[in-house]
Design brief:
The protein is of the alpha+beta class. The chain is 19% helix and 31% strand. Strands 1, 2, 3, 4, 5, 6, 7, 8, 9, 10 and 11 form an 11-stranded antiparallel β-sheet that branches. The chain starts with 8 loop residues before the first helix and ends with a strand.
């Protein structure tokens, strides 16, 4: 639970992210997972953007990151109908946003939140989270994972770097009931490796881009 990992919040300011495992009670995360598994309306997302160009939102300065003549790609699925559901929005506020506001001691002004499913060959290239939806300034990004099980070589691994000039990236397993908080004021590049053809389960996630009352 969040209360047991308060000490980790120092990593949010020092390293740009921190991880909390077992974020929700078992009954709560199982209910969410079942809801996502039963959802029948998933919209295919196949994005292609020239965001790596000079002055673009994903411009990188490391020779180990995409060059300026490359294109950004994202492939996955979104539950757009469920994202707009009034009951879901209330649940999301009560389960997630209220805890996050208390954790960071900062009022949440707005959020853009996606319900995602990654299956075989789904992935996203390196990017940063700056402007998303109705959020003018993204202060916090969260990635909350739900799955029956997951292992390293199924792919779908979150890779995260400390800056746009980094050489290395840190690998984070999308294990069930794990949440990752990312400090967007540090502009941390991250990506998701392709899910393999032999992955036995789907990889569900809640991705939320949060604007707070004041910057950190």
């Amino acid at each position: 639970m969040v209360e047991n990992d308060m000490y980790n919040i120092a990593d949010f300011y020092k390293n740009g992210y921190f991880i909390v495992d077992d974020f929700l009670e078992e009954s709560c995360y199982k209910k969410l997972l079942n809801k996502f598994k039963k959802e029948s309306e998933w919209t295919r997302i196949d994005q292609v953007r020239d965001h790596y160009k000079k002055g673009g939102p994903f411009e990188m300065n490391s020779k180990y990151f995409p060059n300026r003549d490359e294109e950004y790609y994202l492939q996955g699925w979104r539950a757009k109908r469920l994202e707009k559901n009034v009951s879901w929005r209330k649940d999301y506020h009560d389960i997630f946003l209220s805890k996050i506001s208390k954790l960071f001691k900062n009022e949440i002004k707005n959020d853009t939140t996606y319900i995602l499913k990654y299956m075989k060959d789904d992935f996203s290239r390196i990017h940063v989270d700056d402007l998303r939806g109705d959020v003018d300034r993204v202060d916090i990004s969260i990635l909350y994972y739900l799955c029956d099980e997951w292992i390293w070589d199924w792919g779908g691994i979150l890779m995260i770097a400390k800056s746009t000039i980094s050489e290395d990236m840190h690998a984070i397993m999308p294990k069930n009931n794990r949440i990752v908080f990312i400090n967007n004021q540090k502009k941390l590049p991250h990506c998701v490796t392709p899910v393999t053809k032999y992955a036995k389960k789907d990889r569900f996630a809640i991705a939320s881009f949060i604007g707070c009352n004041k910057p950190f």
